[in-house]
Amino acid sequence: MPRDASELAGRLAREAEAVCRHYLSNGKRAGRYWVVGDVHNAPGRSLFVRLKESPKGPAGKWTDAATGEHGDLLDIIRESLALRGFHEAAEEARRFLNLPRSEQQLPLKPVRSIVPIGSRQAARRLFAISSPIEGTVAEAYLQRRGIGRIHHGGSLRFHPCCYYRPDDHLPTETWPAMIACVTDLDGRITGVHRTWLDPDGFDRVRLGKAPIDTPRRAMGDLLGNAVRFSVVDDVLAAGEGIETMLSLRYVLPTMPMAAALSANHLSGMMLPSGLRRLYIARDADAAGDAVQAILSQRAADAGIEAIALSPRLGDFNEDLDVFGLDTLRAALRFQLVPEDVVRFLHSSTVAAE
Questions:
Q1: pLDDT tens per residue across all 353 residues of the chain
Q2: DSSP E strand boundaries for 165-199
Q3: Is residue 128 within a helix (H) or strand (E), and if so which, with residue range?
Q4: Strand partners, 48
């Protein structure tokens, strides 16, 4: 096991290309170098990572020609993931190399945080280094909540070891997580939502979420934005939770939808130009009543028809899980405008067959 930072950096250097492919995935190999935009994995050709030892220097060293910054692969890991310090970078490196976690904290060195923790830049990076959900714990989590077909349109990804910090005084943990990108009306990522998951099973108490105090957290710029499933045309369904809207997408896979992540954010969600009809997928509680009133008035002021979709139980995921797909489809048939029944519900029935 490496005893110090230089030994750990040496281990990474022997796997330099694999490190670059994982943490600098927007770059590419060019001869004996990996070329990318910067340490934050931006596209471009400013930063060069030496992949093999040569007379010019050891493997794993990098230089950013645009800024003059330089360092080793531990720095790449720290900055690409916006980690808080050297110790977290070392632990992430150990995970990547499949080494045991250190029993004591490695020597700290001063670091300069380039990207603020919780910023939209950090959110974009987390989403970029995450993987498709197919075949992962995230897919199993949604399926066990009754969502047999997950029509997420690329808005969901999976990270097997997503950092979770209970608070500023406790050590960082890692759990698998479903990562959802939050975007503005132009499709730019402004934040992410993380749902940490239990890799060991599914129970009816936590519904498959990790056994931690706050298994759901968002970061970035959320107000006015949302997790979007499909590009909006003239009709949109909007609600609070990701699972709620994916449940409706299971029934109406071609209807554009958005999850605002909370009642307050749903009330303040930006409405796209050209929208003609807004379905408000409300939760059955006092907050849902308030959201419906506020968002309906905002829609009316913008000349948009607003129609409430109401579940029988607490929300539409609960309806789907308890009553099943056919019952939810039948309930929605009576709540949608007739032309939307033909346009969206009929197409979903054909797709299911």
A1: 344 677 888 889 999 999 999 989 888 888 888 998 888 888 888 889 999 888 778 899 998 887 778 889 998 988 888 776 778 888 888 888 877 654 434 333 333 444 556 677 888 989 998 999 999 999 999 999 999 999 999 999 999 999 998 876 778 888 999 999 999 998 899 999 999 999 887 666 567 899 998 999 999 999 899 999 988 889 999 999 999 999 999 999 999 999 999 999 999 999 999 999 999 999 999 999 999 999 999 999 999 999 999 999 999 999 999 999 999 999 999 999 999 999 998 655 544 44
A2: 173-183, 189-196
A3: helix 120-129
A4: 35, 63
Sheet holding 257-259, edge to edge: 227-229, 257-259, 235-239, 277-281, 305-309
Contact, 289 vs 261, CB < 8 A? no
**Could you tell me the pTM of the whole model?**
0.68
Residue 314 belongs to what domain range?
227-352
Contacts of 212 (CB under 8 A, 6+ apart): 164, 166, 173, 175, 196
Which of 160, 193, 220 is at the close of a domain? 220
CA distance 236 to 336: 12
Q: Check: CB of residue 265 under 8 Å from CB of residue 226.
A: yes
N residues, the chain: 353
* CA 146 – CA 237 distance, rounded (Å): 20
Could you give the number of structural domains in the chain? 3
Q: Are 288 and 235 within one domain?
A: yes
- Are 279 and 235 within 8 A, CB to CB? yes
- Judge if 263 and 309 occupy the same domain: yes
Q: Do 216 and 233 belong to one domain?
A: no
Residues 61, 167, single domain; the answer is: no
| Cα–Cα distance measured from residue 36 to residue 44, given in angstroms and rounded to the nearest whole number | 5
Helices (H), 15-109: 16-23, 73-80, 86-97
